[in-house]
Structure formats: C-alpha cells, structure tokens
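Posted in: Structural Biology > Protein-Ligand Complexes

Title: Requesting predicted complex, alpha-D-galactopyranose in pocket

I'd be grateful if someone could produce the 3D structure tokens for the following input. Sequence and ligand are given below.
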Amino acid sequence: MYCAFAPGRVEILGNHTDYNEGVVLSAALELGTTCRGRLRPDGKIRLRSEGMGEDVVVDADAPFVRTGEWTDYPLGVFAALKQQGFSLAPFECEFSTTLPTGAGLSSSAAIEVATAVFLGHLNGFALSPLETAKLCRKAENEFVGVNCGLLDQVSSVFGLREHLVHLDCRTETVDRIPMVEGVELLIVNSGVKHALTGGEYNERRAQCFEAAKAVGVPFLRDTTTAQLLETPMPEITRRRALHITGENERVYAGIAALRAGDIQAFGALMFASHESSQENFENSTEELDALVEIAKTTPGIYGSRLTGGGFGGATVSLVATDRAEEAAAHLVKVYQEKTGVVGEAYVCPLGDGAMDA
Ligand code: GLA
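-- Reply #1 --
Done. Output follows.
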C-alpha cells in the first residue's frame, strides 16, 4: 500500500499574474488530499473517492476519454506521465480530502499532485518538485482543459511551514519568504461556488494578452502601471491590465514589508489587492466583498482579499494567532447577518508542501 498527500493552497498576493509571467506569493494549507492505493494485476485502473463513494474503472492502455468528472484529474496526470515516456503499471487507489471543493483552494491541484507523487512511489521514479508541478499543470491544461498557470501546483508542491511561496512565473524559480511570527491564515468559504471551467477565467486571460499586445510587449510582466496609463487601448482592457501590474508591484512591496517585519504594511497590500479585483479585474462577488469589508474592522486581522481565480470561492486573511478563533467566529457571524449565507471558516497555519524541496 502506498500513500501520498498534497495540500491545497491560498494565493496571498499576485492575483492572475501567473499566466502573465509575473510574480506571486502563496501558501500551502494543512488541508489537502490523500491518495492511497496499490498495483493491480488485471490491466485496469480503478479510482475511488471516499466522498463520492462510486468506483470508476478504466482500461490502463486505452486512450482516456475526458468526462468532466473529478477522475479527469488523476487520469490526466497518468496520461501526461505516459506521454513523457514513463512506463506505468495499472493500479487502484482511493482519494480522501479535507479540502472543501469549489472554494478556490486548489482542490484540483491537490488531487493532481497527490496522484503524481503516488504514481512515482508506485512505479519507482521521482520527478523533481518543479517537474512535478509542471507535469500536473500540463495535465490540467491539456486533459482537463483549464488554461491555468503554474501557481496552484507550485504552491501544493513547494509549501513550507510558516513561509510564503514566492514564484517567479517567467524564470520559474521558487523561493520561500518567512512569515512574521504569530500569524496564521483565516480562510472563509463564501459558500458561492467557484468553477474555473466557466468562461470568465479564459476571458480575463484573453483581455490580459490583448493589453500586452496594445503596449507592444510579449506579456504584462514586461510593462508597468505608468506605461499602461499612457498607451491607447479600450478602457476595460486597461483596467484588466492595471490589476496585473498593480499585483506584481504589490508582491515586491509585500516581500519588502515581510523582510522588515511589517505585517501591518503587508496587510494593507492585501486590502489594496482586493480593491483592485473589485474595480479593475471585476473578479469579485458581493459575498467576497462583504467578507473583506467585515475583515477590515475585525480585531486581529491584518489584511484580507479574495484568493485564487475569483468569481466566488473564498477569502484569505492574515490574522494574529492569539485572536484567530475569535476573528473567525466574528467574520462568520456578521457575514451571515449581512448576506444570509453561512460561510465556513478555517484557521490554519501556513503549511508544508507535498515534496521536500
Ligand atoms: C486560479 C488558477 C491559477 C491562477 C489563479 C489566479 O487559481 O488556477 O493558475 O491563475 O487562479 O491568480
């Protein structure tokens, strides 16, 4: 019996910068997905999810058909590994998760990374951490059909306790920035579903590429807020692009703030990031806005914003450890009073990734 665990993630600053070859700060969670299983002698792959109950059995050698179900993630990873020339034995496994799905906490990356690590154990190979993240992204892009960047998979692989993961999506380098002591994550699932398979993500992506073209650069990484303000382009395209340049700038400012031990300044950047999501990128929702507004006056919270793709999902706040439970209860209570929706709060430390890196 082999077993692998991969965590979900929160993006802390650097919203939608990854596919623009920008920079991003994230953290792995202690919530995640476990894959347990063994080899199978009969040429079949059998996948089971503890939550869903039902078994899916496919032929290990036949080309897989995408179904739009959760099984696309593990099968996509298997197919991507085979495409890279690995010879893989048939197997069976069961997934169980502590992550809420549809909350924008990268439950999909967690399944992919857990599968990749599990298949490595089972077949006796080890990809490097970066190769693992890239292989999982390839599975998601090419098999699942979501055009995501590298953020989710890198965070799930490279997380480090009490650190932020800093990914430069152009150079594909990762380093880890120590978090100020006594600070934890407070995540609230707004209860409004987040699904990247909806068209908005790809639409925003296209608008970013259009803006880069208007400026005459390959990616928005290559331009600045000042330059965008001077270049003629449709107003909506400009606002989309200003979100990206602003986020890249906030990531660098955030790293400087953490290095100076200034968690208040870091928190202010998170609030500014959310405001830019509201005004420029328009990837927030009323519910996410309500949660961030409440966070602004909640004792113990330094900063708060939507996390991940947007259009629903969760907010992430940085909170003083000794006030975290009280802040979580307050957020959920006022959120329900204001919106009638019951949000789920998770207080958790910045956690380790799936691999030693
Ligand atoms: C989703 C995608 C990531 C990234 C974020 C936004 O989580 O999967 O690649 O683009 O949205 O930053």
